């Protein structure tokens, strides 16, 4: 390949690929070694805590990936609706909650949000505009 100095030959690309494959193999071996050490430490910790068992499949305690938020979804919803008196549609409210930094691992967050709205007495659905709003008194559904 003739041309600019930015172009690499096939041989150069193969060398780069071979180096990366070797580096990957080395890192995978290192990860396996470290994982074994971590498993040993975990078993020792659990023994000291009173013999809590570790699930056999993974060899390590399960770690939850559920989102952790300082404020509950209900409080986040109420705060956002209080700031926007005209209310939000379900889609807009969902977007605003996520933009506010609320963390979720839900595959269908809008459904979770709908359930929260449905079960929050301070919130009502305005069927004329299709928006969710805080009820005028702040504690009863409907108008």
Structure description:
This protein is mainly α. The chain has two domains: 10-63; 73-134, Orthogonal Bundle (Arc Repressor Mutant, subunit A). Helices cover 49% and strands 6% of the residues. The protein is built from four helices and two strands, in the order ααααββ. It has helices at 10-48, 73-83, 90-99, 109-118; strands spanning 123-126, 131-134. A two-stranded antiparallel ribbon has the order 1-2. A hairpin with a 4-residue loop joins strand 1 (123-126) and strand 2 (131-134). It is flat, with a radius of gyration of 27 Å. It starts with 9 loop residues before the first helix and ends in a 9-residue tail after the last strand.
Question: Looking at the structure, what is the overall shape?
Answer: flat
Backbone CA Rg? 27 Å
- Could you tell me the mean pLDDT? 83
Residue ranges: pLDDT <50 for 5 or more in a row?
Answer: none
Give the SSE string.
HHHHEE
Distance between the termini: 75 Å
CATH topology of the largest domain: Arc Repressor Mutant, subunit A
* Integer count of domains: 2
Q: What is the SS-derived class?
A: mainly alpha
Spatial strand arrangement across the major sheet = 1-2
CATH architecture classification name of the largest domain? Orthogonal Bundle
Largest sheet: 2 strands, antiparallel
Q: What does this entry show, briefly?
A:
With 143 residues, the chain is mainly alpha-helical. Helices cover 49% and strands 6% of the residues. The chain has 2 domains: 10-63; 73-134, Arc Repressor Mutant, subunit A (Orthogonal Bundle), CATH 1.10.10.
């Amino acid at each position: 390949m003739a041309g600019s100095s930015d172009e690499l030959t096939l041989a150069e690309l193969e060398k780069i690929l071979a180096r990366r494959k070797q580096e990957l193999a080395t890192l995978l071996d290192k990860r396996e070694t470290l994982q074994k050490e971590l498993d040993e430490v975990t078993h020792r910790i659990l023994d000291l805590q009173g013999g809590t068992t570790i699930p056999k499949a993974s060899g390590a305690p399960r770690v939850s990936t559920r989102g952790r938020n300082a404020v509950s979804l209900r409080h986040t919803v109420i705060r956002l609706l209080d700031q926007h008196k005209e209310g939000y549609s379900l889609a807009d409210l969902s977007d605003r909650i996520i933009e506010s930094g609320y963390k979720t691992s839900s595959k269908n967050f809008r459904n979770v949000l709908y359930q929260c709205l449905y079960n929050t007495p301070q919130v009502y659905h305005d069927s004329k505009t299709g928006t969710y709003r805080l009820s005028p008194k702040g504690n009863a559904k409907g108008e």
